[in-house]
């Protein structure tokens, strides 16, 4: 038997989740405790885990006992079969070993100059004397950073075209009903799914052109993730296929764009509410720029900035759940969860 579920239909549950996720999860925990079950359309029963020790038990299960890729199945139509987020077992380990070097300390540090430059340009574009959406500004900024540091496209016509197409595609798939299989029907270019399909084809063509050009010209001296992945090899000396490479690049886009923009928006919201903290941050920025320009390494070492980011993520995590599908029976508290149970530790709760 699974933990108790809210006395709502599955459609009511998903509606509450989409509209007010934090409040809904909080009410469920208050009523049912640290283990409760949600019934999600297209996924079925999902056991939510909020107690820290029980969360540790879930994450202590090995990769053969709890699959993360199967828990992300709703993303397959957008990311493809070869996305790191959809893989389990040996294929996941292979892709992970090839992708992770792009996120080692020295490699990440090399992206800092581009991030600072693009941020300065974004600030210069902010309108003066009138209201504007901070979230929109941060969405545009994170997209530009990804196009530069992940795809390796420098300023110019291709940068502008790729950023525009990716932004349009992300806007389409950000609409929650697009996760439903019955919405994923191509009814022509004006239908939501039809629009996404056509945008995806154009993005695919641009990425293929960028990959072909990189192979032809060589990637010596480049620090972007595309350049690194083009040279990545597995234990058998095999690289990623073009399809695998494009799907991993899109995975990095989807995983890093809206999440980062939303996290930064919440950090800005909490900071603007706290005048003393805001004054400390301004003073810290002045200190870091005392030499005339911000240095990425100095920014990364700032304990105040690091603390603000971590606290904002604690207060409002942008991803409330992390999913697993059990491949072996699991006992959580007083419940015996059978094989195939979807379990989701809650970061927020």
Notes on the structure:
By secondary structure, this protein is of the alpha+beta class. The chain has two domains: 1-68 and 322-349, Uridine Diphospho-n-acetylenolpyruvylglucosamine Reductase, domain 2 (2-Layer Sandwich); 69-321, Cytochrome P450 (Cytochrome p450, Orthogonal Bundle). The chain has 15 helices and seven strands. The strands form two sheets. Strands 1-2-7-4-3 form a five-stranded mixed sheet. The longest helix is centred in the C-terminal third of the chain and has 32 residues, at 242-273. The chain starts with 9 loop residues before the first helix and ends with a strand.
Keywords:
single chain; 349 residues; Uridine Diphospho-n-acetylenolpyruvylglucosamine Reductase, domain 2; Cytochrome p450; 2 domains; 15 helices; 8% strand
């Amino acid at each position: 038997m699974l933990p108790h579920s809210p006395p709502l239909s599955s459609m009511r549950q998903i509606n509450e989740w989409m509209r007010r996720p934090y409040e809904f999860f909080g009410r469920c925990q208050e009523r049912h405790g640290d283990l409760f079950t949600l019934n999600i359309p297209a996924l079925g029963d999902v056991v939510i885990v909020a107690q820290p020790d029980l969360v540790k038990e879930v994450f202590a299960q090995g990769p053969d006992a709890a699959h993360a890729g199967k828990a992300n199945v709703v993303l397959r139509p957008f990311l493809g079969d070869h996305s790191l987020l959809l893989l389990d077992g040996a294929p996941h380990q292979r892709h992970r070993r090839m992708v992770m070097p792009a996120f080692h300390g020295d490699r990440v540090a090399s992206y800092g100059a581009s991030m600072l430059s693009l941020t300065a340009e974004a600030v210069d574009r902010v309108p003066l004397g009138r209201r504007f959406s901070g979230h929109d500004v941060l969405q545009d900024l994170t997209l530009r950073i990804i196009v530069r540091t992940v795809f390796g496209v420098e300023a110019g016509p291709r940068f502008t075209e790729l950023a525009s197409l990716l932004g349009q595609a992300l806007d389409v798939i950000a609409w929650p009903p697009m996760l439903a299989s019955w919405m994923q029907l191509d009814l022509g270019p004006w239908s939501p799914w039809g629009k996404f399909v056509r945008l995806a084809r154009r993005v695919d063509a641009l990425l293929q052109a960028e990959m072909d050009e990189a192979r032809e010209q060589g990637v010596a001296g480049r620090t972007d993730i595309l350049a690194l992945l083009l040279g990545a090899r597995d234990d058998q000396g095999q690289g990623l296929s073009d399809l695998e490479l494009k799907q991993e690049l899109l995975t990095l886009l989807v995983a890093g764009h809206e999440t980062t923009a939303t996290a930064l928006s919440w950090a800005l919201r909490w900071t603007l509410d706290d005048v003393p903290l805001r004054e400390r941050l301004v003073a810290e920025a002045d200190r870091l720029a005392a030499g005339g320009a911000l240095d990425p390494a100095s920014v990364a070492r700032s304990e105040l900035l690091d603390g603000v980011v971590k606290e904002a993520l604690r207060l409002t995590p942008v991803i409330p759940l992390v999913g697993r599908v059990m491949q072996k029976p699991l006992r959580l508290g007083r419940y015996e969860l059978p094989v195939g149970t979807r379990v989701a530790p809650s970061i927020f709760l």
